[in-house]
Amino acid sequence: MNIVIASDHAGFALKGVVKAYLTEKGYTVIDCGTDSEASCDYPVFAKALCKEINDGNAQLGILICGTGIGMSMAANKVKGIRAALCSDCFSAKFTRAHNDSNVMCLGARVMGEGLALELVDIFLNTPFEGGKHLRRINMLED
Ligand code: RB5
């Protein structure tokens, strides 16, 4: 599975931690930036990540900013993207199982590395349940 990851300056350090973790686990990671802690605009990086998913280059994405909120707002503007802001394990599990989310947003200023990596594991390893949930997702696309 290919994973695409992106952050702004506030999420840059955590992006590096998540990227190293995923690479160690054998995932192919596409990194859409940013490349330093210099101040930048999160919508730019959210848009780049969403393009990788919509082009079929990655199946799931992880966006990181200070709160995760700006990234989730930006990503959810893009057709075909279902981005979920997660800060607990239950949400990370059920946004895959019920919403078929293809992007998880994390707040680097909200949580530590340990929780972030736990959320990443859950998000990447929980399958979509389909059934009635597919009908609802199709309604989102309409
Ligand atoms: C950057 O200071 C911060 O506003 C950004 O990372 C993010 O939290 C926005 O939602």
Indicate the low-confidence ranges by residue numbers: none
The fraction of residues assigned to DSSP E strands is 15-25%
Q: Major sheet: order of its strands?
A: 2-1-3-5-4
Class by alpha and beta content: alpha/beta
Features:
5 strands, 6 helices, 142 residues, 17% strand, binds D-ribose, five-stranded parallel β-sheet, Ribose 5-phosphate Isomerase B, Chain: A, alpha/beta
Description:
This protein has a single domain, classed as Ribose 5-phosphate Isomerase B, Chain: A, CATH 3.40.1400.10. Helices cover 46% and strands 17% of the residues. The chain is built from 6 helices and 5 strands; from the N terminus they run E-H-E-H-E-H-E-H-E-H-H. It has a 5-stranded parallel beta sheet with strand order 2-1-3-5-4, with helices on both faces. Helix 1 crosses helix 5 and helix 2 crosses helix 3. The protein starts with a strand and ends with a helix. The mean pLDDT is 98. D-ribose binds next to helix 3.
